[in-house]
From TrEMBL:
The species this protein was found in: Lactobacillus kefiranofaciens
Domain of life the protein comes from: Bacteria
Name recorded for this polypeptide: site-specific DNA-methyltransferase (adenine-specific)
Domain Type II methyltransferase M.TaqI-like: 63-196
A GO BP annotation: DNA modification
Keywords carried by this UniProt record: Methyltransferase, Plasmid, S-adenosyl-L-methionine, Transferase
PANTHER family according to UniProt: DNA METHYLASE (MODIFICATION METHYLASE) (METHYLTRANSFERASE)-RELATED, DNA METHYLTRANSFERASE YEEA-RELATED
Record carries keyword Methyltransferase: yes
Length: 526
């Protein structure tokens, strides 16, 4: 991330203003209970308030930026609008006992590190006071939603534009449970096409009524903001079964039920392997070296083979041949490892390299300056495999054949002893496994899927004996070639057939591939 002072004002404010069709839709929903008091905790220029057509309503609008707050009264025709030019967390701390009939908001997307100390304190209090956990992963929008719902009267309505993180990330689990405890009606609308094309973040609409008891739950996927549904015509459905994530809501109900009812088909990935984050060097340009750089600074005795980029490997194995090929292309294929090395014993050219970095203040970066010796990277170890962190068409599980290490572009995978690696590879690229990888990750606009180490707990593999001695060398060689096509359907069909024929794993592979196609297309097309 860039330092805070280099971020744009929009990023720090966290704001992307709401298109009028959405504002009109949310207002139509909340006005059904004839609200008299309305709160907009992140008002911006008043975009969400423009459709309000009842002059008897009192509106409290909170906006942090003076220039935007000045636009609110110009953009709406309601005389009873009180604009607070302040930070919402500060305002909430002073007004938390107030209650409203309705809340409309597109809360800001602000990472924890960009909050002030006071904002962090108030955010933590909001979460803890509502039986939720506070941590550094939680984005400001979560606390906005919790605070807004807490200020609703019983029977009050809420209409929100919020990140699809609600469905996809682990840190939003507490928020989902909070909503289920506090809303008697919960409606979620997902979009196939981007609401805000200028940002990678994807968004959903959340509409609800405050009240106790098991909520009436509805979810629908629509094409875009011009295809918003009549909620009265949408059937209620059971609450999502997966408490960790609700990513599967993009699937039709019958396909979600298929997954829930076929738990006998799978084995937990974490029963066979452990996933940890790759090496955080703190300064990749300094520590990641080309072959030429290694020779120029006399570092050949102080480097390890490195897998640092997704384009550095296009098959199932990172081996000596691929390492040499990448080195000849001038890629950074070596990691400088100076652990347990005395500075005075290093070659003079390498010492000069370190001194030059210090002269250029490389060592002042946060992750470097907190080390005892800034150029000694902690936690360097060689994994059996690598898992790509941010994927496009297809996940990458790569077997380490050259004792390489990786930066945090890849996660490090430890595989249990005696697991049949070839069988694990075939299983990982089966339709069943790829479905659960899609559901485990967090998708971004543009089609990327991010996998964090904790997400591997949601990975599923076909339920077979992974310790059996079976020769799959021929099949893995074919798979290695297929992987280079990046075609999930072709790859998974081959692996499904191998599982059926070679290890007698019988399952509805066609249905899994159908689900995989839907999940993949939904992600890639956004």
């Amino acid at each position: 991330m860039k330092e805070k002072e280099t971020q744009t004002a929009r990023k720090l404010r966290g704001g992307y203003y709401t298109p009028y069709p959405i504002a009109e839709y949310l207002w139509k929903y909340v006005k059904e209970n004839n609200p008299k008091q309305v709160l907009e905790p992140a008002a911006g220029d008043g975009a969400l308030l423009k459709p309000i057509d009842n002059s008897d309503i009192n509106i409290d609008a909170i906006e942090y930026q003076d220039s935007e707050a000045e636009k609110i009264n110009k953009n709406i025709n309601i005389p009873q609008v009180k604009v607070y030019v302040t930070d919402f967390f500060k305002w909430f701390d002073d007004h938390k006992i107030q209650e409203y009939d309705a809340v409309l908001s597109n809360p800001p997307y602000i990472r924890y590190q960009y909050l002030t100390d006071r904002q962090r304190t108030i955010q933590s209090e909001i979460l803890v006071d509502n039986s939720m956990r506070s941590n550094r992963l939680i984005n400001a929008w979560v606390a906005f939603v919790v605070a807004a719902i807490s200020m609703l009267k019983e029977g009050g309505r809420i209409g929100l534009v919020i990140p699809s993180d609600l469905l996809q990330v682990t840190y939003a689990k507490d928020l989902r449970q909070f909503m289920l405890r506090n809303l008697k009606e919960l409606n979620i609308i997902s979009f196939r096409n981007a609401v805000f094309p200028e940002t990678e973040q994807r968004f959903i609409l959340l509409l609800g009524i405050k009240g106790r008891g098991e909520p009436k739950f509805k979810h629908i996927v629509v094409d875009d903001i011009h295809d918003l549904p009549d909620l009265n015509k949408i059937s209620t459905e059971p609450l999502p079964e997966n408490s960790e994530k609700w990513s599967d809501l993009v699937l039709p109900r019958r396909e979600r039920e298929f997954l829930y009812s076929h738990k006998k088909d799978w084995e937990l990935f974490n029963n066979l392997a452990n996933v940890e984050v790759g090496i955080t060097t703190g300064a990749n340009p300094f520590f990641s070296l080309t072959q030429e750089q290694v020779l120029n600074i006399d570092a050949k005795d102080f480097v390890r083979p490195l897998l640092g980029r997704s384009v550095s490997v296009n098959g199932l194995f990172y081996n000596k041949e691929k390492l040499i090929e990448n080195a000849e292309k001038g890629q950074k294929v070596w990691l400088l490892d100076l652990n347990n090395k005395d500075y005075i014993s290093l070659p003079i050219k390498l010492r000069n390299y370190i001194s030059e970095a210090e002269h250029n203040h490389v060592n002042t970066a946060y992750k470097l300056r907190i080390r005892n010796i800034w150029y000694q990277i902690p936690s360097i170890w060689v994994p059996q495999a690598f898992l790509l962190r941010r994927i496009g068409n297809l996940p990458k599980l790569v077997i380490n054949k050259v004792n390489a290490v990786s930066t945090d572009t890849f996660h490090r995978v430890s595989i249990l002893d005696k697991v049949n690696i070839n069988l694990l590879l075939i299983a990982f690229y089966s339709s069943l496994s790829l479905v659960y990888v899609e559901l485990a990750g967090r998708s971004y606009g543009g089609g990327a899927l991010e996998i964090l180490p904790g997400d591997s707990s949601q990975f599923r593999l076909p339920a077979v004996n992974y310790y059996q001695s079976i020769d799959l060398n021929k099949e893995v060689k074919i798979l290695n070639d297929l992987i280079k096509t990046s075609d999930p359907q072709k790859i998974s069909k081959f692996c499904d057939e191998v599982l059926k024929e070679k290890v007698d794993f019988q399952f509805d592979d066609q249905q899994y591939r159908k689900i995989l196609r839907k999940l993949h297309q939904f992600r890639i097309n956004n």
